[in-house]
Amino acid sequence: MKYQNFNVSIYCPVGNINSITDFEAFDQKFQLIEKNIKVGKVYLETFRSGTTISKEQMKKVKAYFESKNIITSGGITTEDSNPSKEGGFHPFCYTSSKTIEKLKEIVTLTAELFDEFIIDDFYFTNCRCDQCIKEKGDRSWADFRISLIQEISEKVIIKTAKEVNPSIKIIIKYPNWYEHYQETGYNLEEQPKVFDYIYTGTETRNPTYAQQHLPKYLSYFLMRYLENVAPSRNLGGWFDPYECTYNLTSYIDQGYLTLFSKAKEAMLFSLGSLIYDKTFSNFPPIIGQVFEDLDQYISELGNPIGVPTYLPYHSYGEDYLHNYIGMCGIPLEPFPHYPESADTIFLAENAACDENIVNKMKQSLKNGADLIVTSGFIKKLGEAFHEFIHVSYTDQKANVNQYLYSTNGGITMKSCLEAAKKIIIPQIRFFTNDVWELAGAYGEDNNFPILLKSSYSKGRIYVLTIPDDMGDLYHYPAEILNTIRSILCKNMKVFIEGNCKIPIFAYDNDTFILRSFLPYGEAIRIKIKSENASLYNIMIGRTYDGYPDAEGTNFDLTISPGVNYILKIREN
Ligand SMILES: [Zn+2]
């Protein structure tokens, strides 16, 4: 009773398993999960928010799950018991000797009970107590905290656990807020080297009406990034039902996108929410069906591919921009190291955090690559960017909803494409005839670039203007998005034309997936760079015939909301 192509696990908080006194009654409750989901593993928590568990109780809980052939692992949530009542989360203060003693105690208990445990994503610090201020000294909070938590990881958690149980394996789960890791001590560069495995938070919930502002594409994107941080040691993606009751599809989006990334495991948080909380009683059946569906076709998909993009360790910039780009139908493959052999590279503001970025870009351009940089990237790089082209970020804004573009490399511009919403974009300054505008937005007797192009050595460099509200990328008209996609996806076999919010997930065996996040059916054009191609929908067994143009074969499809189009390119 397992899935063929991935594993599914449940995270069980300590409060949920402490409360089990009658295992027969619990078994009745657990049926809601068991009859819908083939659970391969449970993570049994030993500590959260000051609550712990007795060894006797944990042994009973372990025995219950193991009698069902479910693998058991441990879990620790390093959250304090909320003493200050200030609101927000209360992770530990790691300069406190009390914390060190508490951690040793919890880790010892866990390592005595299990051969593996995961650390939930509260393993950060936001403490600014007097001792933390003193120990920070002249360093930034980010520098202080990433070295502090690294030291705790090695000298307290890992050391204690290995002393108690030399064969212990420890997994560190990274939260979904990757742009902000370093500020609270998550050290993506050094921690994965000392922990055995990592895990990925793929919770995207409600992008608009929630505190995190994370576009749905993140459930896929962050899995891919962490896979490239620790290849083959990223054990899976973890999501929950919270802030998804507005729309059940928003819950299963997380499941689909986590597994589209070829995750080894999907973890559901949490046992209690899924079986005790009636708010979420619809969720186990629907996510169970997601796993059944995916298990039918996920083996048909090769390895994920996309436009290489570079997010250096500890970098931040245009907050989560990559996920908005993904939502615009541009598949991305993120790397923590500069992808020096790539022939197209997308560089957002994060990439400008690398002190050697200019030299790395020069080498790519000498090799003939196309580099697409954002307005935030040139803002951060400042005058150093003028080595390539004299294009500058200005403090001036334009309020736009009419657009123009060029089909002859910027010599002449055409159209007045009108979008319903006016958006604010930064005015990017450039010098005509040295740099070419491929797309722009109208002002009054004026226009402002959306996409600029120039050449350098054997390569090409493009500047993409990002609206002040990144979500306003969705309001660029289809023709403008098509121009942007045609450049970013130049080396992909497939790209799409049309409006945004239909991301594409591409694989190296001529398969790809389209999934719409629009609330209505939307017509798009799929362009395959191959003559006489046809498209086969693996999920429903249907073949679509296309029609040729000079570049390959086109397919016009209407994409229904929340439906997966699992497509294989066939050469006729
Ligand atoms: Zn402190």
Task: Give the SSE layout.
Layout: E1 7-12, H1 14-18, H2 23-34, E2 41-48, E3 51-52, H3 55-66, E4 71-76, H4 97-113, E5 116-119, H5 130-136, H6 141-164, E6 169-174, H7 191-194, E7 197-201, H8 218-229, E8 234-239, H9 248-260, E9 265-269, H10 271-275, H11 283-297, E10 304-305, E11 307-310, H12 321-327, E12 332-335, E13 344-347, H13 357-366, E14 370-374, H14 375-381, E15 392-405, E16 414-429, E17 436-442, E18 447-456, E19 459-464, H15 478-488, E20 494-497, E21 504-507, E22 511-515, E23 522-528, E24 533-537, E25 542-545, E26 547-549, E27 552-559, E28 564-571
Parallel strand pairs: 1-2, 1-9, 2-4, 4-5, 5-6, 6-7, 7-8, 8-9, 11-12, 13-14, 14-19
Antiparallel strand pairs: 2-3, 10-21, 15-16, 15-17, 17-18, 18-19, 20-23, 21-22, 22-28, 23-27, 24-25, 24-28, 26-27
Helix pairs in contact: 4-6, 8-9, 9-11
The largest sheet is:
8 strands, parallel, barrel
Ligand roster: zinc ion
Number of domains: 3
Highest-level CATH class of the largest domain:
Alpha Beta
Let me know the CATH homologous superfamily of the largest domain.
Glycosidases
CATH arch. level architecture of the largest domain? Alpha-Beta Barrel
Low-confidence stretches: none
Strand order of the largest sheet: 1-2-4-5-6-7-8-9
Per CATH, what is the topology of the largest domain? TIM Barrel
The computed structural class is alpha/beta
Q: Note the gap between the termini.
A: 39 Å
Helix content: 25-40%
Gross geometry: globular
Q: Specify Rg, calculated over alpha carbons.
A: 25 Å
Number of strands: 28
Number of distinct helices: 15
Mean pLDDT: 97
What proportion strand? Answer: 25-35%
